[in-house]
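Summary for the funding panel

The consortium committed to producing paired sequence-structure records for every protein in the target list. Below we show the first two records in order, beginning with the earlier of the two.
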Amino acid sequence: MAKNRVLGKGLSALIQGADGPYVPTTGGEGRAIHELPVVELAFNPDQPRKVFRQDKLEELAASLRDVGVLQPVLVRALTRGETVAPDQAGDPPPKYVVVAGERRVRAARLAGLATVPAIACTYEETEALRIALLENIQREDLGPIEEAEAYRSLIDAYGATQEELADMLGKNRSTVANALRLLALEDEIQQLVEDGTLSRGHAKALLSVPAGDQRLRLARLCRSRGLSVRETERRAQGAAAARERTRRRRRTATSPRGESPEVRALRERAESHFGSPVSIEREAGGKGRISVAFFDDGDLERLLAMMGIQTDLD
Protein backbone atom coordinates (compact mmCIF):
# COMPACT_ATOMS: atom_id res chain seq x y z
CA MET A 1 0.00 0.00 0.00
CA ALA A 2 1.48 3.33 -0.97
CA LYS A 3 2.12 5.68 1.91
CA ASN A 4 2.96 9.32 1.43
CA ARG A 5 2.24 11.10 4.68
CA VAL A 6 4.06 13.47 6.99
CA LEU A 7 3.22 11.24 9.94
CA GLY A 8 4.84 8.25 8.30
CA LYS A 9 8.15 10.12 8.28
CA GLY A 10 8.55 9.84 12.05
CA LEU A 11 11.84 11.35 13.19
CA SER A 12 12.28 13.42 10.04
CA ALA A 13 9.43 15.60 11.30
CA LEU A 14 12.18 17.62 12.97
CA ILE A 15 15.60 16.13 12.23
CA GLN A 16 16.22 16.21 8.49
CA GLY A 17 17.56 12.91 7.25
CA ALA A 18 16.85 10.99 10.45
CA ASP A 19 14.51 8.57 8.72
CA GLY A 20 16.16 8.38 5.33
CA PRO A 21 18.65 5.80 4.04
CA TYR A 22 22.24 6.29 5.07
CA VAL A 23 24.09 8.60 2.69
CA PRO A 24 27.54 9.78 3.87
CA THR A 25 27.38 13.52 4.47
CA THR A 26 30.26 15.93 4.89
CA GLY A 27 28.41 19.23 5.02
CA GLY A 28 25.89 21.37 3.21
CA GLU A 29 22.21 21.43 4.00
CA GLY A 30 20.71 19.21 6.67
CA ARG A 31 22.34 17.34 9.51
CA ALA A 32 25.64 15.53 9.05
CA ILE A 33 25.66 11.77 9.44
CA HIS A 34 28.69 10.46 11.29
CA GLU A 35 30.08 6.97 11.73
CA LEU A 36 30.24 6.61 15.51
CA PRO A 37 31.91 3.71 17.37
CA VAL A 38 29.27 1.54 19.00
CA VAL A 39 31.34 1.46 22.20
CA GLU A 40 30.81 5.22 22.52
CA LEU A 41 27.01 4.83 22.51
CA ALA A 42 25.11 4.28 25.75
CA PHE A 43 21.50 3.19 25.98
CA ASN A 44 19.04 5.54 27.61
CA PRO A 45 18.61 4.38 31.24
CA ASP A 46 15.06 5.79 31.18
CA GLN A 47 14.16 3.77 28.09
CA PRO A 48 10.72 2.24 28.88
CA ARG A 49 11.34 -0.78 26.69
CA LYS A 50 13.50 -3.20 28.65
CA VAL A 51 13.00 -6.47 26.75
CA PHE A 52 14.34 -7.06 23.26
CA ARG A 53 13.64 -10.45 21.69
CA GLN A 54 16.94 -12.18 21.10
CA ASP A 55 15.75 -14.05 18.02
CA LYS A 56 14.63 -10.82 16.38
CA LEU A 57 17.90 -9.10 17.25
CA GLU A 58 19.84 -11.99 15.72
CA GLU A 59 17.75 -11.80 12.54
CA LEU A 60 18.50 -8.09 12.26
CA ALA A 61 22.18 -8.70 13.04
CA ALA A 62 22.39 -11.20 10.16
CA SER A 63 20.94 -8.57 7.83
CA LEU A 64 23.35 -5.92 9.08
CA ARG A 65 26.32 -8.21 8.38
CA ASP A 66 25.22 -8.34 4.73
CA VAL A 67 24.14 -4.76 4.04
CA GLY A 68 25.21 -2.73 7.06
CA VAL A 69 23.07 -0.16 8.89
CA LEU A 70 21.08 1.67 6.20
CA GLN A 71 19.16 4.01 8.50
CA PRO A 72 21.12 6.22 10.90
CA VAL A 73 20.33 6.16 14.60
CA LEU A 74 19.56 9.33 16.52
CA VAL A 75 21.86 10.21 19.44
CA ARG A 76 22.58 13.14 21.69
CA ALA A 77 25.89 14.05 23.27
CA LEU A 78 26.18 13.68 27.01
CA THR A 79 25.97 17.03 28.76
CA ARG A 80 28.66 18.31 31.09
CA GLY A 81 28.59 16.34 34.33
CA GLU A 82 26.15 13.74 32.95
CA THR A 83 27.27 10.15 33.38
CA VAL A 84 25.76 6.99 31.94
CA ALA A 85 27.13 3.52 32.50
CA PRO A 86 28.60 1.80 29.42
CA ASP A 87 26.53 -0.94 27.84
CA GLN A 88 29.17 -3.63 28.39
CA ALA A 89 31.89 -4.09 30.97
CA GLY A 90 35.24 -2.98 29.63
CA ASP A 91 33.82 -0.37 27.25
CA PRO A 92 35.20 3.17 27.56
CA PRO A 93 32.97 5.87 29.09
CA PRO A 94 30.24 6.61 26.52
CA LYS A 95 30.01 9.95 24.76
CA TYR A 96 26.46 9.70 23.43
CA VAL A 97 23.05 8.44 24.51
CA VAL A 98 20.86 6.67 21.95
CA VAL A 99 17.60 8.57 21.47
CA ALA A 100 16.12 6.38 18.75
CA GLY A 101 17.48 3.21 17.19
CA GLU A 102 18.52 1.22 20.25
CA ARG A 103 17.45 -2.01 18.55
CA ARG A 104 19.73 -1.27 15.58
CA VAL A 105 22.65 -0.53 17.89
CA ARG A 106 22.13 -3.76 19.82
CA ALA A 107 21.95 -5.74 16.57
CA ALA A 108 25.07 -3.97 15.27
CA ARG A 109 26.95 -5.16 18.36
CA LEU A 110 25.76 -8.70 17.73
CA ALA A 111 26.86 -8.41 14.11
CA GLY A 112 30.34 -7.35 15.19
CA LEU A 113 30.10 -3.92 13.56
CA ALA A 114 32.53 -1.36 14.94
CA THR A 115 30.54 1.72 13.94
CA VAL A 116 27.01 2.79 13.05
CA PRO A 117 25.79 5.83 11.12
CA ALA A 118 24.34 8.37 13.53
CA ILE A 119 22.83 11.84 13.62
CA ALA A 120 23.66 13.87 16.73
CA CYS A 121 21.17 16.32 18.17
CA THR A 122 20.80 18.32 21.37
CA TYR A 123 18.64 17.54 24.37
CA GLU A 124 16.35 20.44 23.42
CA GLU A 125 15.89 19.00 19.94
CA THR A 126 14.89 15.59 21.26
CA GLU A 127 12.25 17.22 23.46
CA ALA A 128 11.00 19.29 20.53
CA LEU A 129 10.80 16.10 18.48
CA ARG A 130 8.67 14.41 21.12
CA ILE A 131 6.32 17.40 21.29
CA ALA A 132 6.01 17.55 17.50
CA LEU A 133 5.10 13.88 17.28
CA LEU A 134 2.54 14.26 20.05
CA GLU A 135 0.99 17.24 18.30
CA ASN A 136 0.73 15.24 15.08
CA ILE A 137 -1.03 12.43 16.90
CA GLN A 138 -3.46 14.85 18.56
CA ARG A 139 -4.60 16.29 15.24
CA GLU A 140 -8.36 15.90 14.87
CA ASP A 141 -8.33 15.25 11.13
CA LEU A 142 -6.29 12.04 11.24
CA GLY A 143 -7.85 9.00 9.65
CA PRO A 144 -7.89 5.69 11.57
CA ILE A 145 -4.84 4.28 9.76
CA GLU A 146 -2.92 7.56 10.01
CA GLU A 147 -3.64 7.65 13.73
CA ALA A 148 -2.44 4.08 14.17
CA GLU A 149 0.75 4.79 12.23
CA ALA A 150 1.35 7.89 14.33
CA TYR A 151 1.08 5.80 17.50
CA ARG A 152 3.48 3.25 16.05
CA SER A 153 5.90 6.02 15.04
CA LEU A 154 6.11 7.33 18.59
CA ILE A 155 6.35 3.85 20.11
CA ASP A 156 9.17 2.93 17.75
CA ALA A 157 11.01 6.21 18.26
CA TYR A 158 10.96 6.13 22.04
CA GLY A 159 10.34 2.50 22.92
CA ALA A 160 7.23 3.43 24.92
CA THR A 161 4.68 0.82 25.88
CA GLN A 162 1.05 1.21 24.87
CA GLU A 163 0.15 2.18 28.43
CA GLU A 164 2.89 4.82 28.60
CA LEU A 165 1.84 6.25 25.25
CA ALA A 166 -1.78 6.40 26.40
CA ASP A 167 -0.71 8.30 29.52
CA MET A 168 1.29 10.77 27.40
CA LEU A 169 -1.73 11.41 25.17
CA GLY A 170 -4.33 11.45 27.93
CA LYS A 171 -6.17 8.52 26.35
CA ASN A 172 -7.35 5.16 27.58
CA ARG A 173 -4.96 2.30 26.93
CA SER A 174 -7.73 0.43 25.09
CA THR A 175 -8.04 3.35 22.66
CA VAL A 176 -4.37 3.11 21.75
CA ALA A 177 -4.42 -0.70 21.62
CA ASN A 178 -7.49 -0.80 19.38
CA ALA A 179 -5.98 1.79 17.05
CA LEU A 180 -2.73 -0.17 16.71
CA ARG A 181 -4.66 -3.35 15.94
CA LEU A 182 -5.77 -1.77 12.65
CA LEU A 183 -2.21 -2.14 11.38
CA ALA A 184 -2.71 -5.92 11.52
CA LEU A 185 -5.30 -5.65 8.75
CA GLU A 186 -4.28 -6.56 5.23
CA ASP A 187 -2.97 -3.71 3.06
CA GLU A 188 -6.04 -3.87 0.84
CA ILE A 189 -8.33 -3.37 3.83
CA GLN A 190 -6.16 -0.59 5.25
CA GLN A 191 -6.47 1.19 1.89
CA LEU A 192 -10.28 0.89 2.02
CA VAL A 193 -10.26 2.42 5.52
CA GLU A 194 -7.82 5.11 4.48
CA ASP A 195 -9.87 6.28 1.49
CA GLY A 196 -13.08 6.26 3.53
CA THR A 197 -14.74 3.28 1.85
CA LEU A 198 -14.77 1.48 5.21
CA SER A 199 -15.11 3.16 8.59
CA ARG A 200 -13.26 2.56 11.83
CA GLY A 201 -16.27 0.51 12.95
CA HIS A 202 -16.02 -1.71 9.87
CA ALA A 203 -12.30 -2.21 10.52
CA LYS A 204 -12.90 -3.14 14.15
CA ALA A 205 -15.50 -5.72 13.13
CA LEU A 206 -13.20 -7.20 10.49
CA LEU A 207 -10.47 -7.73 13.09
CA SER A 208 -12.60 -10.46 14.68
CA VAL A 209 -12.40 -12.46 11.44
CA PRO A 210 -9.29 -14.62 10.87
CA ALA A 211 -6.64 -12.97 8.74
CA GLY A 212 -6.48 -13.97 5.11
CA ASP A 213 -9.05 -14.85 2.48
CA GLN A 214 -12.05 -14.96 4.81
CA ARG A 215 -11.43 -11.44 6.10
CA LEU A 216 -10.68 -10.09 2.63
CA ARG A 217 -13.91 -11.59 1.28
CA LEU A 218 -15.96 -9.87 3.96
CA ALA A 219 -14.17 -6.55 3.39
CA ARG A 220 -14.83 -6.75 -0.33
CA LEU A 221 -18.46 -7.58 0.39
CA CYS A 222 -18.68 -4.48 2.58
CA ARG A 223 -17.34 -2.42 -0.32
CA SER A 224 -19.50 -3.91 -3.06
CA ARG A 225 -22.77 -4.04 -1.12
CA GLY A 226 -22.23 -1.09 1.17
CA LEU A 227 -22.77 -3.17 4.30
CA SER A 228 -23.39 -1.21 7.47
CA VAL A 229 -21.16 -1.60 10.51
CA ARG A 230 -23.91 -3.52 12.28
CA GLU A 231 -24.30 -5.93 9.38
CA THR A 232 -20.54 -6.39 9.20
CA GLU A 233 -20.46 -7.15 12.93
CA ARG A 234 -23.29 -9.63 12.51
CA ARG A 235 -21.48 -11.47 9.73
CA ALA A 236 -18.20 -11.44 11.69
CA GLN A 237 -19.96 -12.80 14.76
CA GLY A 238 -21.54 -15.49 12.62
CA ALA A 239 -18.11 -16.53 11.40
CA ALA A 240 -16.82 -16.60 14.98
CA ALA A 241 -19.81 -18.68 16.10
CA ALA A 242 -19.20 -21.14 13.27
CA ARG A 243 -15.56 -21.48 14.31
CA GLU A 244 -16.59 -22.10 17.91
CA ARG A 245 -19.12 -24.77 16.91
CA THR A 246 -16.43 -26.50 14.86
CA ARG A 247 -13.99 -26.30 17.77
CA ARG A 248 -16.52 -27.77 20.19
CA ARG A 249 -17.36 -30.60 17.81
CA ARG A 250 -13.69 -31.44 17.44
CA ARG A 251 -13.19 -31.33 21.19
CA THR A 252 -16.13 -33.66 21.76
CA ALA A 253 -14.99 -36.02 19.01
CA THR A 254 -11.44 -36.29 20.34
CA SER A 255 -12.32 -36.54 24.04
CA PRO A 256 -12.29 -40.21 25.09
CA ARG A 257 -14.15 -39.53 28.31
CA GLY A 258 -17.30 -37.64 29.13
CA GLU A 259 -17.14 -34.46 31.21
CA SER A 260 -17.86 -35.13 34.86
CA PRO A 261 -20.05 -32.72 36.87
CA GLU A 262 -16.98 -31.64 38.84
CA VAL A 263 -14.93 -30.84 35.73
CA ARG A 264 -17.93 -29.10 34.17
CA ALA A 265 -18.29 -26.89 37.25
CA LEU A 266 -14.60 -25.98 37.15
CA ARG A 267 -14.74 -25.28 33.42
CA GLU A 268 -17.75 -22.98 33.87
CA ARG A 269 -15.97 -21.12 36.65
CA ALA A 270 -12.92 -20.69 34.42
CA GLU A 271 -15.08 -19.42 31.55
CA SER A 272 -16.72 -16.94 33.90
CA HIS A 273 -13.32 -15.76 35.09
CA PHE A 274 -11.74 -15.36 31.67
CA GLY A 275 -14.85 -14.35 29.74
CA SER A 276 -13.83 -16.82 27.01
CA PRO A 277 -14.57 -20.46 26.15
CA VAL A 278 -12.45 -22.92 28.16
CA SER A 279 -11.83 -26.60 27.58
CA ILE A 280 -10.47 -29.07 30.13
CA GLU A 281 -9.24 -32.40 28.82
CA ARG A 282 -8.26 -35.15 31.23
CA GLU A 283 -6.29 -38.29 30.55
CA ALA A 284 -5.72 -41.48 32.48
CA GLY A 285 -3.69 -40.91 35.62
CA GLY A 286 -5.05 -37.41 36.22
CA LYS A 287 -2.94 -35.63 33.60
CA GLY A 288 -4.48 -33.35 31.00
CA ARG A 289 -4.58 -29.84 29.60
CA ILE A 290 -6.65 -26.68 29.87
CA SER A 291 -7.24 -24.38 26.89
CA VAL A 292 -8.64 -20.84 26.76
CA ALA A 293 -9.99 -19.62 23.42
CA PHE A 294 -9.37 -16.14 22.03
CA PHE A 295 -10.86 -14.52 18.95
CA ASP A 296 -8.36 -11.87 17.90
CA ASP A 297 -5.03 -10.28 18.89
CA GLY A 298 -6.67 -7.91 21.35
CA ASP A 299 -8.49 -10.76 23.06
CA LEU A 300 -5.23 -12.71 23.33
CA GLU A 301 -3.51 -9.70 24.86
CA ARG A 302 -6.37 -9.33 27.35
CA LEU A 303 -6.14 -12.97 28.45
CA LEU A 304 -2.34 -12.90 28.81
CA ALA A 305 -2.58 -9.74 30.91
CA MET A 306 -5.08 -11.52 33.20
CA MET A 307 -2.49 -14.27 33.61
CA GLY A 308 0.17 -11.73 34.53
CA ILE A 309 2.13 -12.22 31.31
CA GLN A 310 3.95 -9.24 29.76
CA THR A 311 2.72 -8.75 26.19
CA ASP A 312 5.19 -6.10 24.97
CA LEU A 313 7.86 -8.28 23.37
CA ASP A 314 10.02 -5.76 21.50
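The next record, for a separate protein in the list, is shown here:
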Amino acid sequence: MSQTKIAIIASDAPEAAAARERLCERYETVSPEEADVIVALGGDGFVLQSLHQFMRREIPIYGMNRGTIGFLLNRYDEQGLLERIARAETLTLHPLRMTATRTNGEIVEALAVNDVYVLRETRLTAHIRIQVDGRVRLDELICDGVIVATPAGSTAYNLSAHGPIIPLGADVLALTPISAFRPRRWRGALLPHKSTVKLEILQSDRRPVSAVADMVEVRDVREVLIKEDRTVKLMLMFDTDHSLSERILAEQFSVE
Protein backbone atom coordinates (compact mmCIF):
# COMPACT_ATOMS: atom_id res chain seq x y z
CA MET A 1 0.00 0.00 0.00
CA SER A 2 1.42 3.39 -0.97
CA GLN A 3 2.11 5.99 1.68
CA THR A 4 -0.47 8.71 2.20
CA LYS A 5 0.65 11.94 0.54
CA ILE A 6 0.24 14.91 2.87
CA ALA A 7 0.35 18.67 2.44
CA ILE A 8 0.99 20.83 5.48
CA ILE A 9 -0.51 24.32 5.70
CA ALA A 10 -0.47 26.81 8.56
CA SER A 11 -2.11 30.02 9.70
CA ASP A 12 -0.16 33.27 9.92
CA ALA A 13 0.36 32.81 13.67
CA PRO A 14 4.10 32.47 14.50
CA GLU A 15 3.47 29.30 16.52
CA ALA A 16 1.67 27.66 13.60
CA ALA A 17 4.28 28.75 11.03
CA ALA A 18 7.12 27.41 13.21
CA ALA A 19 5.30 24.10 13.65
CA ARG A 20 4.91 23.78 9.89
CA GLU A 21 8.65 24.26 9.37
CA ARG A 22 9.47 21.52 11.87
CA LEU A 23 6.95 19.07 10.41
CA CYS A 24 8.11 19.71 6.84
CA GLU A 25 11.66 18.83 7.93
CA ARG A 26 10.43 15.60 9.50
CA TYR A 27 7.95 14.39 6.87
CA GLU A 28 7.85 14.26 3.09
CA THR A 29 5.19 16.62 1.81
CA VAL A 30 3.52 17.56 -1.47
CA SER A 31 1.44 20.50 -2.66
CA PRO A 32 -2.23 20.65 -1.62
CA GLU A 33 -3.17 19.86 -5.24
CA GLU A 34 -1.28 16.54 -5.08
CA ALA A 35 -2.14 15.56 -1.50
CA ASP A 36 -4.41 12.81 -0.18
CA VAL A 37 -4.77 14.62 3.16
CA ILE A 38 -4.19 18.22 4.18
CA VAL A 39 -2.70 18.83 7.62
CA ALA A 40 -3.87 22.22 8.88
CA LEU A 41 -2.02 23.96 11.72
CA GLY A 42 -3.79 26.79 13.51
CA GLY A 43 -7.04 27.38 15.34
CA ASP A 44 -10.70 26.68 14.63
CA GLY A 45 -10.95 29.72 12.37
CA PHE A 46 -8.11 28.45 10.21
CA VAL A 47 -9.73 25.03 9.89
CA LEU A 48 -12.96 26.70 8.75
CA GLN A 49 -10.96 28.75 6.26
CA SER A 50 -9.26 25.59 4.99
CA LEU A 51 -12.56 23.74 4.60
CA HIS A 52 -13.82 26.59 2.46
CA GLN A 53 -10.59 26.85 0.47
CA PHE A 54 -10.54 23.16 -0.50
CA MET A 55 -14.31 22.62 -0.50
CA ARG A 56 -14.57 21.54 -4.13
CA ARG A 57 -11.73 19.01 -3.86
CA GLU A 58 -13.48 16.83 -1.26
CA ILE A 59 -10.13 16.20 0.40
CA PRO A 60 -9.97 15.29 4.11
CA ILE A 61 -8.42 17.81 6.49
CA TYR A 62 -6.56 16.73 9.60
CA GLY A 63 -6.14 19.71 11.90
CA MET A 64 -3.67 20.09 14.76
CA ASN A 65 -4.15 22.82 17.31
CA ARG A 66 -1.73 25.71 17.14
CA GLY A 67 -4.41 28.24 18.11
CA THR A 68 -6.55 28.77 21.19
CA ILE A 69 -9.72 26.69 21.67
CA GLY A 70 -9.11 24.07 18.99
CA PHE A 71 -12.54 22.49 19.12
CA LEU A 72 -12.28 21.28 15.52
CA LEU A 73 -8.66 20.17 15.84
CA ASN A 74 -6.57 17.32 17.19
CA ARG A 75 -3.84 17.82 19.77
CA TYR A 76 -0.49 18.92 18.40
CA ASP A 77 2.18 16.21 18.38
CA GLU A 78 5.08 15.94 15.95
CA GLN A 79 5.54 12.22 16.57
CA GLY A 80 3.80 9.53 14.51
CA LEU A 81 1.80 11.90 12.32
CA LEU A 82 1.32 9.46 9.43
CA GLU A 83 0.26 6.70 11.81
CA ARG A 84 -2.27 8.99 13.49
CA ILE A 85 -3.71 9.99 10.11
CA ALA A 86 -3.97 6.32 9.08
CA ARG A 87 -5.97 5.51 12.24
CA ALA A 88 -8.10 8.68 12.25
CA GLU A 89 -11.87 8.70 11.83
CA THR A 90 -13.24 10.78 8.96
CA LEU A 91 -16.36 12.82 9.60
CA THR A 92 -18.41 14.03 6.62
CA LEU A 93 -20.20 17.36 7.01
CA HIS A 94 -22.63 19.16 4.73
CA PRO A 95 -22.65 22.97 4.82
CA LEU A 96 -25.57 25.36 4.87
CA ARG A 97 -26.23 27.38 1.74
CA MET A 98 -27.26 30.98 2.36
CA THR A 99 -29.08 32.92 -0.34
CA ALA A 100 -29.33 36.53 0.79
CA THR A 101 -31.31 39.18 -1.06
CA ARG A 102 -30.19 42.73 -0.34
CA THR A 103 -32.52 45.71 -0.20
CA ASN A 104 -31.23 46.83 -3.62
CA GLY A 105 -32.21 43.48 -5.15
CA GLU A 106 -28.69 42.01 -5.33
CA ILE A 107 -28.54 38.28 -4.51
CA VAL A 108 -25.51 36.82 -2.73
CA GLU A 109 -24.88 33.12 -2.06
CA ALA A 110 -22.40 31.64 0.39
CA LEU A 111 -21.76 28.36 2.20
CA ALA A 112 -21.38 27.91 5.96
CA VAL A 113 -19.90 25.01 7.90
CA ASN A 114 -20.88 26.40 11.32
CA ASP A 115 -23.85 28.69 10.96
CA VAL A 116 -25.78 31.34 9.12
CA TYR A 117 -27.08 34.27 11.15
CA VAL A 118 -28.69 37.65 10.72
CA LEU A 119 -27.81 40.54 13.01
CA ARG A 120 -29.03 44.10 13.41
CA GLU A 121 -26.68 46.80 12.11
CA THR A 122 -27.83 49.74 14.26
CA ARG A 123 -29.24 50.55 17.68
CA LEU A 124 -32.72 49.59 16.42
CA THR A 125 -33.87 46.03 17.02
CA ALA A 126 -34.50 43.76 14.06
CA HIS A 127 -38.05 42.67 13.21
CA ILE A 128 -37.96 39.26 11.52
CA ARG A 129 -40.64 36.96 10.13
CA ILE A 130 -39.62 33.28 10.25
CA GLN A 131 -40.84 30.68 7.77
CA VAL A 132 -39.95 26.99 7.81
CA ASP A 133 -40.68 25.01 4.65
CA GLY A 134 -43.04 27.70 3.37
CA ARG A 135 -45.08 28.01 6.56
CA VAL A 136 -44.88 31.08 8.79
CA ARG A 137 -43.87 29.94 12.27
CA LEU A 138 -43.27 33.36 13.81
CA ASP A 139 -45.00 36.32 12.25
CA GLU A 140 -42.70 38.81 13.96
CA LEU A 141 -39.66 38.21 16.14
CA ILE A 142 -38.23 41.37 17.71
CA CYS A 143 -34.59 40.65 18.50
CA ASP A 144 -30.94 41.37 17.82
CA GLY A 145 -30.83 38.53 15.31
CA VAL A 146 -31.34 34.82 14.55
CA ILE A 147 -28.89 31.92 14.12
CA VAL A 148 -29.30 28.73 12.09
CA ALA A 149 -26.55 26.35 13.22
CA THR A 150 -25.34 22.93 12.10
CA PRO A 151 -24.42 20.27 14.69
CA ALA A 152 -20.73 21.06 14.14
CA GLY A 153 -21.46 24.76 14.68
CA SER A 154 -23.85 24.31 17.59
CA THR A 155 -21.04 24.81 20.11
CA ALA A 156 -19.94 28.13 18.53
CA TYR A 157 -22.06 31.31 18.31
CA ASN A 158 -25.21 29.23 18.82
CA LEU A 159 -24.04 28.08 22.25
CA SER A 160 -23.09 31.63 23.25
CA ALA A 161 -26.67 32.66 22.41
CA HIS A 162 -27.94 29.87 24.72
CA GLY A 163 -28.87 27.57 21.86
CA PRO A 164 -28.76 23.77 22.21
CA ILE A 165 -25.69 21.61 21.68
CA ILE A 166 -26.51 19.10 18.94
CA PRO A 167 -24.81 15.69 18.75
CA LEU A 168 -23.38 14.84 15.36
CA GLY A 169 -25.59 12.53 13.37
CA ALA A 170 -28.76 13.96 14.90
CA ASP A 171 -29.86 15.31 11.49
CA VAL A 172 -31.23 18.51 12.97
CA LEU A 173 -30.45 22.22 12.82
CA ALA A 174 -30.68 24.72 15.65
CA LEU A 175 -32.79 27.85 15.11
CA THR A 176 -31.79 30.21 17.90
CA PRO A 177 -32.80 33.82 18.60
CA ILE A 178 -30.21 36.39 19.64
CA SER A 179 -31.51 38.50 22.55
CA ALA A 180 -35.20 38.02 21.77
CA PHE A 181 -37.42 40.84 23.07
CA ARG A 182 -40.80 39.67 21.72
CA PRO A 183 -42.00 36.97 22.05
CA ARG A 184 -39.96 37.07 25.23
CA ARG A 185 -40.31 33.40 26.13
CA TRP A 186 -39.33 31.98 22.73
CA ARG A 187 -36.01 30.17 23.03
CA GLY A 188 -35.70 28.74 19.53
CA ALA A 189 -36.39 25.42 17.84
CA LEU A 190 -34.78 22.25 16.53
CA LEU A 191 -35.53 21.64 12.87
CA PRO A 192 -35.09 18.62 10.57
CA HIS A 193 -31.85 19.04 8.63
CA LYS A 194 -33.77 19.08 5.33
CA SER A 195 -35.75 22.16 6.34
CA THR A 196 -35.65 25.39 4.36
CA VAL A 197 -35.62 28.45 6.62
CA LYS A 198 -36.68 31.83 5.31
CA LEU A 199 -35.92 34.94 7.35
CA GLU A 200 -37.84 37.97 6.11
CA ILE A 201 -36.51 41.27 7.45
CA LEU A 202 -39.41 43.57 8.24
CA GLN A 203 -38.85 47.33 7.94
CA SER A 204 -35.47 46.54 6.38
CA ASP A 205 -34.88 50.14 5.25
CA ARG A 206 -35.40 51.58 8.72
CA ARG A 207 -34.00 48.62 10.66
CA PRO A 208 -31.01 47.37 8.61
CA VAL A 209 -29.78 43.82 9.12
CA SER A 210 -26.67 41.92 8.00
CA ALA A 211 -26.49 38.23 7.07
CA VAL A 212 -23.38 36.16 7.79
CA ALA A 213 -22.39 32.70 6.53
CA ASP A 214 -19.21 31.73 8.40
CA MET A 215 -16.74 34.33 7.06
CA VAL A 216 -18.97 36.00 4.45
CA GLU A 217 -21.01 39.03 5.54
CA VAL A 218 -23.75 40.61 3.41
CA ARG A 219 -24.99 44.03 4.51
CA ASP A 220 -28.52 45.42 4.27
CA VAL A 221 -30.53 42.29 3.54
CA ARG A 222 -34.29 42.02 3.19
CA GLU A 223 -34.58 38.23 2.94
CA VAL A 224 -32.38 35.23 3.68
CA LEU A 225 -32.96 31.61 2.63
CA ILE A 226 -31.01 28.89 4.44
CA LYS A 227 -30.85 25.22 3.49
CA GLU A 228 -28.41 22.35 3.90
CA ASP A 229 -26.47 21.65 0.70
CA ARG A 230 -25.90 17.90 0.52
CA THR A 231 -24.17 18.17 -2.84
CA VAL A 232 -21.12 19.50 -0.99
CA LYS A 233 -19.10 17.13 1.21
CA LEU A 234 -16.55 18.34 3.75
CA MET A 235 -14.28 15.85 5.48
CA LEU A 236 -12.59 16.35 8.84
CA MET A 237 -10.30 13.75 10.39
CA PHE A 238 -10.09 13.15 14.14
CA ASP A 239 -7.98 10.94 16.35
CA THR A 240 -10.03 7.96 17.50
CA ASP A 241 -9.46 8.80 21.18
CA HIS A 242 -10.64 12.40 20.79
CA SER A 243 -13.43 12.51 18.19
CA LEU A 244 -15.61 15.54 17.53
CA SER A 245 -18.68 13.53 18.53
CA GLU A 246 -17.12 12.89 21.95
CA ARG A 247 -16.20 16.56 22.33
CA ILE A 248 -19.74 17.69 21.57
CA LEU A 249 -21.13 15.16 24.06
CA ALA A 250 -18.61 16.19 26.74
CA GLU A 251 -19.41 19.88 26.20
CA GLN A 252 -22.97 19.23 27.40
CA PHE A 253 -21.61 18.23 30.81
CA SER A 254 -19.13 21.09 31.08
CA VAL A 255 -19.55 23.29 34.19
CA GLU A 256 -16.97 25.91 33.25
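Regarding this second record: The mean pLDDT is 92. The longest strand covers residues 135-143.
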